[in-house]
Amino acid sequence: MATTNLSYYDKATIPNAKNFRFGIVVSEWNPEITQNLKNGAIETLLDCGASKNNIVSWDVPGSFELVYGCKKMIQAEKLDAIIAVGNVIQGETKHFDFVCEGVTQGIIDLNVKYDVPVIFCVLTDNTKQQSLDRSGGKLGNKGIECAVAAIKMAAIKNSDRSSESIGF
Ligand SMILES: Nc1c(NC[C@H](O)[C@H](O)[C@H](O)CO)[nH]c(=O)[nH]c1=O
Ligand SMILES: CC(=O)[C@@H](O)COP(=O)(O)O
Questions:
Q1: pTM reported for the whole predicted model
Q2: Is 95 considered catalytic here?
Q3: Which residue's CA lies nearest to atom 2 of ligand 1?
Q4: What is the ipTM of this complex?
Q5: Could you name the active-site residues (predicted)?
Q6: At 83, is the secondary structure helix, strand, or coil?
């Protein structure tokens, strides 16, 4: 099923983020896309109670470097969740496949190896228009969706492992 709207969220279903600390690692490739994703994520974290002092943001050259950047941020900062922000657009060659596969597997590996949820905020699109539509266009902003995921995962990370403690 195609994406409907990435920007909708119900604050009543989201834990308050005031006590959580977030990292955001942003790819410099396709900045007109990734900056919109980053801004959507930050605005949503703040809207849901996070403070600006509890949001750390680093830039990396491309989506393939998101994995190393997130690893170093996990090692350097005390975080409750990280949002990895990138945009990979199909070109003429198979490079798209390898970048997407590498960043996807790398983020999976980080979620397994470290106790900090890393949220996959990487648009992997056939065309630039698809990316524009999903970074503040007609289909919303994936940065917003990923900020909500980061808050919910931060709550799980900090729960006492009982379902009652996280309100489900
Ligand atoms: N073509 C895109 C890239 N390519 C660059 C790689 O991510 C990486 O920086 C390079 O291969 C050096 O290791 N990156 C994107 O984020 N988006 C693209 O569309
Ligand atoms: C995903 C990429 O690296 C891609 O944009 C590069 O373009 P091309 O495959 O035409 O070299």
A1: 0.95
A2: yes
A3: 88
A4: 0.96
A5: 95
A6: strand
